[in-house]
Every structure is written in C-alpha cells, then in structure tokens.
Amino acid sequence: MALTGRTALLAALGSLPVGIWDPSWTGILAVNAPLALACACDFALAAPVRRLGLTRAGDTSVRLGESADVELTVTNPSGRPLRAQLRDAWPPSSWQPGTEVEASRHRLTIPPGERRRLTTRLRPTRRGDHQADRVTIRSYGPLGLLTRQGSHQVPWTLRVLPPFTSRKHLPSKLARLRELDGRTSVLTRGQGTEFDSLRDYVPGDDTRSIDWRATARQSTVAIRTWRPERDRHILLVLDTGRTSAGRVGDAPRLDASMDAALLLAALASRAGDRVDLLAYDRRVRALVQGKAAGEVLPSVVSALATLEPELVETDARGLTSTALRTATRSSLIVLLTSLDAAPIEEGLLPVLSRLTQRHTVLLASVADPHIEQMAKARGTTEAVYDAAAAAQAHAERHRTAEQLIRHGVTVVDATPTDLAPALADAYLSLKAAGRL
C-alpha cells in the first residue's frame, strides 16, 4: 500500500500561518489533530485493493491494423464502496502512438459486493503475441486525502495476425480458377490434367483429344475435355534469414512474402490442392502440414503471426533437405526468398537440382519500388548517378533470374503491392499449362 495522499496533507498543513506548526510529524499531529484524524479515517474507509477479484474476457486474436476489445471484470468483495482509478497496462506496441494514456486508464465506482466491467480497446502496431501486463488500482477514501494502491497480474494473450491485404485479389483469381476447373467451357492439355467429359468436335480443336471409340459409337466426332487435376501438393517455403529483414517501404520483405503466401494458400486450397507451409533459415521456424482444406488458411495465418526475420545467413542445404522431407511426392515448391545475386549463386544454385529433378519450383522475390523510381530520375548529376545504380541493380537481378530459369525455375519478381497477385497468376498459369 502507498500513502499517496501525504503530499495533499502537507499542502493543506502548509496553508497554516508560519510558526504555528512544527514541520515534524509529531508537531503536525499535535497542532492539527483533526486533519490528521480525517486523513486516517479517509484511509481506513478506502476499499482494500488486494482483495479485489479481477478476470478477463474478450478478443484473443486480431488482424494487424484492426481494433480488439479486452474486457476486465472487477469484483469488490469488501463492505466498503470502491472509488478508484485503474490502469490496464499492455506493451507499447499494443496501441497507436499517443493513445495509450486515454485507452488504458479507467475511473470506476463499485458498491460493496458488486462488480463492474471495463473495456480496454487495443489497436496493435506489430504482429505477434501481446501479453497483458499488471493491472494497477488506486483506491480513494471518501475525502480523497489518502489512497490505497496495489497491482494484480491478470494474464491475457492477444495474437496479432498478418493483415492479409491481398485478399482483395482473391475473387478475381477464383473466377479464373473456375474457368480452369471446367465450370466454364475450356479445353486444356498437359501432364497435370484429368479427363472431364465428352463433347462434339468443333473446327480448331486439338485432334489429339479425339476419342475414337466414342466417335465410332455415334454419328459425330467426339472430343475429350480435360480439367486441371485436384489434390496436388503445394509447399510454401519462406526464407526467414537476414535478407528477409531488409525493409522495402515501411515493412520488412518478410511481410510482403507472407501476404503473397496467404493469397496463394487461400487460392490453392479452394482449388482442391493440399497446401503446406515451411519457414526456415538455419532451423525450422514454422511448419504447417497435413491440414484439411478448411483449416489451411487459419493455420497458416496463426503460424505466420509470430514469425520474425532472423539476422543469420540462410542455410540453403538445410532448407533444401527440409523441403524434400516435407514434400515426399511430386509437388509445386514455392520459394519466397531474395533474388540477390550472392545468396542465390553461393547458396541456392549449387543445391537447386535436388529440388528441380523431382518437383516444380517457383521462386518469388520482393522488388524494391524505390529502385524503379531511381531508374527514372533525371535532371541533376546526382539523379543520373541514381539512375545508373538502379540500372545496374536491375541488370544483376535479371541475370540472376535468367540463371534460375535455365535450371527450370519459374521466377516472379514484383514490388510488395504486386507480388501476391503476380504469384497467384503464376500458379494459375502452371495449372493452365498442365504442369501441376
């Protein structure tokens, strides 16, 4: 307990004429006994803090950028009314800057034996698990001269999920998927297709699709139609090494890769494909495997919520070995990693053949939009040098991409806002070409 009303008492006594009271506590009590008695009674009538009962309820998860409400129920079991100020403390990243004081502090009055419910509105600015800190309560007496103060630990965890801003592209990608799936009349050929139905031949159709047995039983030429196979295996591999920590705009590259992975996971699970997730640098940081179609997206979102870049060089051999153990049959392996020359040439290229000989590999990388702006700069000497540096960076990424393409890898290189839809389009193109 803290006698936080002592300052108020001394201020009141300080208004007495000089020389009437001794500055020691003995003199104070002797000269102004009624005021001291009032303070003692005020302190005694303040409701005890440590006997209060506190419980939590409310939201346990929220998307980054949205608000979450956490309820705190305070029960006053004592025989005295509780007049108090309460502070519900959370980590600083649980609030928008400048809103913490207003959102975390509450005034409350609770009669004896009753309870009150308070709501703390959080608006986190970072992903991950946010743990509630202590609840501090300052209980006032009826005169407000002295207070009792104490803290309670009331545990609660709020998981802040990735924002998934690319979900706005999902309807258009699903419409294209429905076309590939045969709900709109289309004809596709390739190793990743399966028989759908028969129809009459139309000039221009691929003659390799003629069903001669069916044609012999009828008076018209019959054509087999095909649709992309379902139940293919998609493995999303996120590189969480040091290159993923580089900031592009206001966020790390890893955040843009996560957003692209979420859109592809949502699309592929709707297509009937099995989707797994692996996050790796020098060890496994997250693994989602064997989930049913309806559970894939929630599981991936939850796994990505606490994922952060690690300032270590990614072990390409370890990543490849782990990916091969996770993808035990022919799969589409989507590598979300950097397209920088050194990590690719020294790390990935020497072990890439282990992946491409059994699987279809698609590499997606986040490009820096600032380099695009630099490439267009003109007018001053400094701007010309910036444009030359941007052109050199473009040429290096292009050479690296060509090396990967020669190894049979499909490459997607796009800015953070364009990466997710570009990756989804690449997936759909592979399906349309029968490569899945």
Automatic annotation (TrEMBL):
Residues 198-376 form the DUF58 domain. Pfam families: DUF58 (PF01882). Gene3D superfamilies: Immunoglobulins. It comes from the Bacteria. InterPro entries: DUF58, Ig-like_fold. This is DUF58 domain-containing protein.
